[in-house]
Amino acid sequence: MAAVRTADSRQQWEIIKKNFCIDGDFSQINDSGEDLQLVVRLVQQLGAGQLVLDLALDAIWLALRQSVVPKFWQHFVTFEAQTNGKEDDAGEGSVEVMSRVATAVSELYDSAGSFVPQINRCEMLCEQSGAKFEDCIPGGLMEHFKLHLRATLHSQMPSSFMHLLHKFYSAAFKVFYQAEVGSQVEESEEVTDEPVPCGGCGGATDACHCQAITNTFCQVNKQLYGLDLLERLAGDIISSLLLSVITDHVSTTCRDSYDQSCINQLEKWVENVVVGWLELVYCGSRGQLSSADAAIQTMVSNNLNQTYMTALYHTYTTTRIDQLFNIVIEYPESQPALEDIRECLDRTHLRDRLVESLRSAIQTRLLHPGVNTTDVLHAYISAIKALRVLDPKGVLLELVSEPVRQYLRGREDTVRYIVTSLTDESCSELSEELLVAAPLVLDDSHSDDDNMDNWETWTPDPVHAHNLKSKSQRTADIISMLVNIYGSKDVFITEYRTILADRILSQFSYDTEREIRYLEHLKVRFGETLALLHKCEVMVKDVADSKRINTSINSDENPHREKQKFPVSAMILSAQFWPSFKEERLQVPEEVTKELENYTEAFQDLKGNRTLNWKPHLGQVQLEIELKNRTLNLTVTPTQATIIYHFQERNRWSIDDLSTMTQVPKTVLRRKITYWQTQGVLQEVESDVFVLVEGEETGEEGQTAAAGLPLADIAPPAIEEDEAESVMASAQDQREEELQVLWSYIVGMLTNLDCLPLERIHAMLKMFVQGSVECSPQELRAFLDRKVRQHQLLLTNGLYKLPKN
Amino acid sequence: MIVLKRSWRKYSIDNLEQVMKVKIKSWTGVATWRWVANDDSCGICRMPFDGCCSDCRLPGDDCPLVWGQCSHCFHIHCIMKWLQSQQLHQQCPMCRQEWKFKE
């Protein structure tokens, strides 16, 4: 009985084993004759459901592990071995890769498919016997099977596989991309007779196998998708291909053109390419997305928005950030690009990087001695305007421009350039800016209480705005920003005063309309009350007054007019309100002195109790010089006029004699004479001796002089610089004069206290001379050292002392 | 030959000596004006005479000087203010003599 039962049960076991392929032989699964229902019932009777299921599944897993997966991988390992060495043979290689991958995948698909009936049986068994498999994973047994397949595949994956798969997908992508985008490009290309290689597969046009590639590709994708392997194996590759093509496309699109907004166009492009590619991969062909699974649809749109659009913005912004310096310089042409960046900056987190990169670009390209101050200033102005577009709150600007301001502060000619261009009509950028009638916003004006009326529209500062200056200052206008380089209005107005003085005393135009206009603008900008601007006002008024006085003195009623040899006019200045002049001496010719005296007398008659002090070296003289065969009409300075005047009496002067005659120092004289040399009137015959060149005897010197042209070969052309020379004392001289005020205090101190160290002197000066003259200890030391050199002071053991006399 | 040429040039230069004529067509000079006074600054406001008193903005005609018979002079605005503040005798702030404007 027991034997029968044993034999019986053995037979039953055989049946069960066969039906569930527990021995791992899956070949006869379909032709087993027994009715599956019976077998299942048998298992149930025996109460061995769980056992059988476990064994059956184990057999499947084993088969996967030992035959299916190794076989699949074998394809790639052998292929790798074959092609090792001829790596970059793209054309042929890709075809081979395509077919190899296709075979491998379809084989895998088939063999995995052969497990399906078995899986179904197991599932049925589960249902009927209540046996359980590892059910921690959602989904049925089929899902479970796929999970195992994936796990097994991954556990045995050869290292070269990803590389090959990448090749496979890039080949397919190239074909796709060519079809998608290339069609637009091709139209514009010139048609040539030579066989053009197909852009997609790299083969000759007539032997193009793009279509073949696409077909294989679709089949492979479908099979992989069926096995749930597509995303796992190729997901990364699919997206990395897209990302890299986005990067390439963005950088080619954005290269060197800033005058067009391209972000919308790029967005469209990305959407097109991404959707197209994902459709091809997941649905098999274009335009199928709408009919595909809802899961695929959401996946595509999620990917599109989250991954690829973000990637687009990121890439775009990074590319633009690298070009930002040029973009800034080219403002306002680059306005569209800047607007694009602004839009993208909100969607990325690249502000810090932008600041960093622009700062370093400015540092390396702008802030070095090779760049003119004007250029630095122009760049600064462009930066102000451009960064305002990016960030109307001015935080970016503040962060980026700090080094520029610091640098400009260090350049000596900055103020002069700013002021000149402010009042120069040809430099429209700033002078237009001046017309904006708004008071300056300076660092020290604390008006940043947020306006409570608009509290609803208030927005907080961006996070990286910490430790920045007040809000009002950041949004100040360009002139305010420029003035803020120095943080004080006085520096600018002082400079403006010097420039104004120079302009008046070099043009002698008596036309004050323009100056008055600028002065009014400046008054609006810098505040009515500024003492220095008041001085400028007086200066301009002096010009107008002089005009009136000249008219009245030169009018017919004037008794002196009869005897006058030539008309004299004057620019009569209120010395207290003008910057100090460079003191130069000049003895003008007798004739002129007399006329000037006449003028003074007339002035005294006109304005009782007032008289004039002439500054003989300043002015403008119109001369008519008659030479033997030519007449020159020139407008020159008094010094130049005096020089040539003396050549009337003698045609040969040495510098020494002329210097005694005119009381002009020899170095200055030499410089002034060059003017006459360039005019071809004087010539240096031996060192320091000059003779008059008449028109006639220039036979051997060339005809240029006779023709009235400058004798370039005789004269050193050094004159222009002289013309541009300022008549006002340099800033340094003016400062020296200011310090001179301190001298009387210092003398007083030292008379009373005998000897003092520098620090004491400085401290006491600070106490006595509050406000009027600011002076740093270093400056004071330099000043005192000069006094020591002039023997007006003694320095012993670090103590200053007055010399005993 | 060279000697000859040189002497010729010297000759010609001597000959041409009187040919060049410089004619001044007009002369525009630069001058600063000042009051003809025996002091630099006003004894009342201590501002320079060539500037203006502390109430004025423009110097010269708009803020003239006046002389007293004692020969002291002040900005007109300064001395007027001073005189208005004197109740009994109108005296020169410098020498305390009776203030009379110089004719």
UniProtKB/TrEMBL annotation, chain A:
Domain Cullin family profile span(s) in chain numbering: 479-677
BP terms from Gene Ontology: cell division; metaphase/anaphase transition of mitotic cell cycle; protein K11-linked ubiquitination; ubiquitin-dependent protein catabolic process
Top-level taxonomic group: Eukaryota
GO molecular function: ubiquitin protein ligase binding
Listed GO CC annotations: anaphase-promoting complex
SMART domains attached to this UniProt entry: APC2 (SM01013), CULLIN (SM00182)
Cross-referenced Pfam families: ANAPC2, Cullin_AB, TPR_ANAPC2
Keywords for the protein's UniProt record, in alphabetical order: Cell cycle, Cell division, Mitosis, Ubl conjugation pathway
Family listed: Belongs to the cullin family.
PANTHER family from the UniProt entry: ANAPHASE-PROMOTING COMPLEX SUBUNIT 2
Name of this protein: Anaphase-promoting complex subunit 2
Species the sequence originates in: Penaeus vannamei (Whiteleg shrimp)
From TrEMBL, chain B:
Pathway assigned to this chain's UniProt record: Protein modification; protein ubiquitination
Major localization class: nucleus
GO cellular component: anaphase-promoting complex
Protein origin, superkingdom: Eukaryota
CDD domains, A to Z: RING-H2_APC11
Pfam families: zf-ANAPC11
Keywords for the protein's UniProt record, in alphabetical order: Cell cycle, Cell division, Metal-binding, Mitosis, Nucleus, Ubl conjugation pathway, Zinc, Zinc-finger
GO-annotated molecular function: cullin family protein binding; ubiquitin protein ligase activity; zinc ion binding
Record-annotated RING-type domain positions: 53-96
Example GO BP: cell division
Localization of this protein: Nucleus
Transmembrane segments: none
Function of the protein: Together with the cullin protein ANAPC2, constitutes the catalytic component of the anaphase promoting complex/cyclosome (APC/C), a cell cycle-regulated E3 ubiquitin ligase that controls progression through mitosis and the G1 phase of the cell cycle. The APC/C complex acts by mediating ubiquitination and subsequent degradation of target proteins: it mainly mediates the formation of 'Lys-11'-linked polyubiquitin chains and, to a lower extent, the formation of 'Lys-48'- and 'Lys-63'-linked polyubiquitin chains.
Quaternary structure annotation from Swiss-Prot or TrEMBL: The mammalian APC/C is composed at least of 14 distinct subunits ANAPC1, ANAPC2, CDC27/APC3, ANAPC4, ANAPC5, CDC16/APC6, ANAPC7, CDC23/APC8, ANAPC10, ANAPC11, CDC26/APC12, ANAPC13, ANAPC15 and ANAPC16 that assemble into a complex of at least 19 chains with a combined molecular mass of around 1.2 MDa; APC/C interacts with FZR1 and FBXO5. Interacts with the cullin domain of ANAPC2. Interacts with UBE2D2.
Family: Belongs to the RING-box family.
UniProt protein name: Anaphase-promoting complex subunit 11
